[in-house]
Here is the input.
Amino acid sequence: MISVYRDGDDGLQATDGFPPGSWIHVEEPGEEEIERLHAELGVPRTFLAAALDPREVARTDTQRDFHLIIVRAPYDFGESERAPYRTVPLAMISGAEHFITISRHPVDFVHDLNYDYDEAELHTRRANRMILAILGVVGHWFLHYLEELDRRMDDVEDRLVDSIENSEMLELLRYEKSLIYMKTGLEWNDAMVRHLQERPHFDWSDDDRQLLRDVQIEYRQAFHMAATMQAVLGEMTDAFASLISNNLNVVMKFLAAITIVLTIPALITTVYGMNVPLPGESNPQMFAFVLALSAAIAAVVAWWFRRQGWLSFHVRARREDKGLTSTPNAHDGDD
Here is the structure.
């Protein structure tokens, strides 16, 4: 899908065709749309191929009058994926008359750009300004998704306290994979921004260079945040693996104690069920006496087990008010 935008009184506004000075945003392009970008705008095929390569790293390149910048942007692939949050390549191509962005996945740029920047700061005819704005929005996406990951990890931690199964541990493993993808993307982006500042053809002003440094600081902040979360997650995984094993031992201890308590009445009644002469078998009160004796001995054993702490099984109430927050828009994720 190809969308075209120009400067408007209220920010970016959609337009038709490819007028000079416009921003052309391409999502999930087909072969016909790729061929149209090459034929009508002259975009190099190598740039188009790089933009759609899911393994492309963050980098810059130049061919003829076109300059390519690829940044890794976070993306939500959904709960069915083994790593729900990853990063995808987002290509920005600056030409003589057009600014082009290409992504294999749908990303909601316009809403965030209009929200974060006013019409005086954002100009589609100024590729430099669009590049800086998009890099800034990508940084905000990283921070947003890292905060979402942190909330989800807190929720899993609450559920792990009483868990004896592997589902929560597997969920933590999925989030650890997401953190690794996020860290790698941020590291690539930081190196790309450093290289971008040195490219002379963009003719960065002093204000532009300051904004680039701000973007770089934001990427580094997100990188260190992801690294800290990964370290905490590793320690937490080890601790809760032991906790799950301990919870299982508590359950087994409780069940073993209950089995012993119930075995005593079964043993006494089995003896008095034998087909041999037994004391008091002719007494009509013997049945009640056997039942009372069985219950008394079972109660004494249960009391002793309870005193020793072998018959305690406490299940903590779940805190339902700390459920998962809603997942972010589809514009934040990775490949």
